[in-house]
Specification:
With 436 residues, the protein is mostly helical. The chain contains 16 helices and 2 strands.
């Protein structure tokens, strides 16, 4: 950091950051550069991606392709609503080329762009909530993660859910900002569950509870947002699926019921393979290396460094940080308890691994290298009393001035005229905002 060379006497020094965090557009371009490479060089590593998504997409575009049992009208476990945006991109690419390989890469490039846009929103939310240091480290972890490199361009509902949850978390972490409506938080999480993977709705539970608690107004507003998002997503999706299946069907409900009640038919998830509880530990180490360990250890680090959390995390305390990271721990615990495990099941919380790892790293390095943050200096009781008296006098003068200039109908509503941004209650009392 550099200090301003010339300051008026008696004024506090202005601290200017040496490296300002990039804007949303610059973050988008940086992420897209990496995700584009992934789109061009990464192979299709999952059989479900090939047969459940690329095959039916090819059928809708060219009229030929195999049908898996999930798309059979008897089961109806997959929604054509998820396929159609990809088909639209492919049909647009066909206007410029007849080469199927180039069309395939155009769809993959669009997936890379969508993921980059969601990542940029995510890190902007991290910056708003935790300030620049955590945002920079999270940005770096997302860039170099092997897991994100693979997941970002995967044509899978779990990858789509990952992107939607990134966008939702980015909006949620900007709670209190007038720039982002929390409707988009609700919409993104519902899109993840209703258009992507229904089980990803588990990650929305802490977010929904936070948005709905605090007052009756917040509860009603969140319910209205939820119903609005439900209508926006499900009405066109049901119409599309009715067109293809020739009957009214809700695939997102069918797949949930099929997995929940499959054991009653004598066939459970074990049919597709059983892995030990350590499967996701080794998988996380392969994809995230030490960042995965830092993410798992983050609650312990927050406990050890709870007295310095606000100092290093932009004013967000330990409990507020755990609330933000809670979807990740819920998801890992839930998936680890399932007998059938696959790498793509963890795509949903890959970005939160990077955020939790960044928080753990910054807190550990700060504690090991700099020790505890300096305690605020206490004033002498006489000086404190004089300061309180001056503050009370200033407040009284402000109130008197306001009352004197009030002219009834001529009074300007600052919120109505945009002079004061409307704010929402913060996530918890532990996550109060402080000036940068």
């Amino acid at each position: 950091q550099t200090m301003s060379s010339q300051q008026p006497e008696g004024e506090p020094s202005v601290v200017k950051p040496r490296f300002a965090f990039p804007s949303y557009l610059n973050c988008l371009l940086g992420f897209f550069a990496v995700r584009l490479v992934a789109a061009l060089v990464t192979y299709v590593g999952d059989c479900d991606e090939t047969f459940n998504y690329w095959e039916p997409t090819h059928y809708l575009m060219y009229g030929t392709g195999f049908q898996t049992w999930e798309y059979s009208p008897e089961f109806g476990l997959r929604s054509y609503g998820y396929l159609l945006p990809h088909v639209g991109v492919g049909m647009l690419a066909r206007l410029f080329t007849s080469n199927k390989i180039q069309v395939w890469f155009s769809i993959r490039t669009t997936l890379a762009l969508f993921c980059a846009a969601c990542e940029a929103l995510f890190v902007q939310g991290v910056r708003y909530r935790f300030r620049d240091t955590i945002a920079w480290v999270t940005y770096a972890f997302l860039m170099v993660s092997a897991g994100m490199f693979q997941a970002s361009v995967s044509f899978l509902p779990s990858a789509f859910a990952m992107c939607c949850i990134m966008a939702g978390m980015g909006c949620w972490m900007q709670q209190g900002s007038s720039r982002v409506s929390q409707f988009w938080t609700v919409f993104a999480f519902e899109a993840a569950a209703l258009m992507g993977w229904p089980f990803s709705g588990l990650c929305a539970v802490p977010v929904a509870l936070n948005l709905m608690t605090g007052s009756g107004y917040r509860f009603v507003k969140t319910v209205i947002w939820g119903l609005s998002a439900l209508a926006i997503i499900m009405v066109p999706t049901c119409l599309v699926d009715h067109f293809f299946y020739r009957r009214w069907i809700v695939p997102v409900l069918n797949i949930a019921l099929y997995n929940v009640f499959s054991k009653s038919r004598g066939v459970g998830p074990e049919l597709y393979g059983v892995e030990p509880a350590t499967f996701y530990i080794f998988n996380g180490l392969v994809n995230f290396n030490i960042v995965f360990l830092l993410a798992l250890a983050c609650p312990l680090v927050l406990l050890l460094c709870r007295d310095s959390c606000r100092h290093h995390l932009g004013g967000t305390g330990a409990w507020g940080t755990l609330l933000i990271l809670s979807p990740m721990y819920l998801w890992v615990a839930f998936m680890s308890a399932m007998p059938h495990k696959e790498e793509r099941f963890l795509y949903v919380v890959y970005p939160l691994f990077c955020l939790a790892g960044a928080i753990g790293l910054v807190l550990l390095v700060s504690r090991l290298c700099f020790g505890r943050p300096p305690a605020p200096r206490k004033l002498h009781p006489t000086a404190q009393a004089a300061l309180d008296a001056r503050a009370a006098a200033a407040a009284a003068a402000t109130v008197a001035s306001t009352m004197a200039t009030d002219r009834g109908a001529d009074t300007i509503n600052p919120r109505r005229h945009g002079r004061v941004p409307t704010t929402e209650p913060m996530m918890t009392s532990d996550a109060e905002e402080v000036p940068a």
